[in-house]
Design goal:
The chain is of the alpha/beta class and 361 residues long. The protein is 26% helix and 28% strand. The chain folds into 2 domains: 158 residues, P-loop containing nucleotide triphosphate hydrolases (Rossmann fold); 165 residues, Gcn5-related N-acetyltransferase (GNAT) (Aminopeptidase, 3-Layer(aba) Sandwich), CATH 3.40.630.30.
Length: 361
């Protein structure tokens, strides 16, 4: 056998009831993990695999997500849904131990002949298998074959690289107690406290764009001025652009968030969140929320026990996907109803300081 072993990415077997390539084959809307056995990951949000999926599963968090997909790990609460006839091919060095590169490729070809709907291509650097590393690289080099594959492709890697980014549209990753799925959004920058850091960049144009956006979304409100008046922190989500716009050095506004941390009430309050109209549905709102939830998780529960917000009624389903609960008894179908108060319990990943440590400070 030569190193030219042919690996054929065959059309997956049909699944009963799956008429659309966008239909979920595996999904976890919201679930919880036992943090003691999952590297301090507690909440799982929005994992979804369809026949169209091209997902990069990054690092240890990505590997835990793959274990949930493969059924080797269970949620402590919540539900993972999976098509009962789903076939998943996990291709890695375990298929042909102590093998040559050619033998690894032959094992991959054999796994694909079963015509699985989902293929996991596992980099598995921890195996220390140089022959598999060469086989993995050869499989990646067949970009056109991977792109033409009609099933879902998941790449398990330790870190993102250009070759991975070219193949994947989404990623599984985790931080600060959360494990989530998000679009591969490149070139993003989050400016955390722009009202106190205005001298660090030319803010005039960006703040004007925030004003205009807030007026559109929040019934004529100037959220910049309100943030100043109420002591809110204003964070901006920007993306690099090739079109150099005077005043923002090639960065365009994607969205903003106003928030306030109140240690006395142990609350992280998200006062405003908005995304530029042309950028909605691209994952920027999710990115802002995930950033805020990670920030809250890095605070001890004595400083942040709850995350709260008042959602415009049309945004309630968005926040529910993160686990926020409607704390009112309001009828949101009432034509005059506008906002809904929602809360989420913070799961801190920071240990509380002991009394002795507090006294030392």
């Amino acid at each position: 056998m030569t190193c030219d072993t042919e690996v054929s990415w065959q059309t997956p077997r049909e699944l009963e009831g799956v008429k659309s390539r966008k239909k979920a084959l595996f999904e976890i809307s919201l679930g919880h993990l036992d943090g003691n056995s999952s590297k301090n990951l507690h909440r799982v949000k929005g994992l979804k695999v369809t026949l169209e999926s091209r997902i990069c599963a990054v690092g240890q968090a990505g590997r835990i997500a793959l274990e949930l997909l493969l059924g080797s790990r269970e949620l402590s609460s919540g539900k993972a849904t999976r098509h009962e006839c789903l076939q998943v091919a996990h291709i890695g060095p375990h298929l042909a131990e102590h093998a040559s590169t050619e033998e690894h490729l032959a094992a991959a070809a054999a796994a694909l002949r079963a015509r699985p709907q989902i293929v996991i291509l596992d980099e598995a650097p921890q195996s220390g298998d140089d022959a598999w590393a060469a086989a993995f690289q050869k499989l990646l080099e067949g970009h056109d074959d991977l792109r033409r594959f009609r099933g879902a492709l998941l790449l398990a890697v330790e870190e993102q690289r250009p070759a991975i980014v070219q193949l994947c549209r989404e990623r599984w990753q985790g931080a600060a107690g959360w494990l989530w799925q998000e679009p591969m959004l490149e070139g993003l920058e989050l400016l955390e406290d722009v009202l106190n850091e205005e001298s660090a960049f030319d803010s005039a144009q960006l703040l004007q764009e925030v004003r205009e956006l807030s007026q559109q979304v929040f019934f004529g409100e100037d959220s910049v001025q309100k943030a100043r008046d109420r002591g809110w922190t204003l964070a901006l989500l920007l993306q690099d652009t090739e079109d150099r716009v005077p005043g923002n050095a090639g960065r365009q506004l994607c969205g903003f968030m106003c928030y306030q941390i109140s240690p006395k009430s142990a609350e992280f309050h998200i006062a405003r969140l908005a995304v530029v109209a042309k950028s909605r549905g691209c994952g920027y709102g999710h990115h802002l929320m995930q950033w805020a939830l990670q920030k809250a998780a890095m605070l001890p529960r004595s400083q942040c026990a709850w995350i709260s917000l008042s959602a415009l009624d049309e945004a309630v389903p968005f926040y529910e996907r993160f686990g926020f609960t409607d704390m009112t008894c309001d009828d949101i179908d009432d034509d005059e109803h506008i906002q809904t108060w929602m809360e989420l319990k913070n799961i801190s990943v920071v240990p509380e300081e002991s009394e002795d440590e507090v006294e030392d400070q």
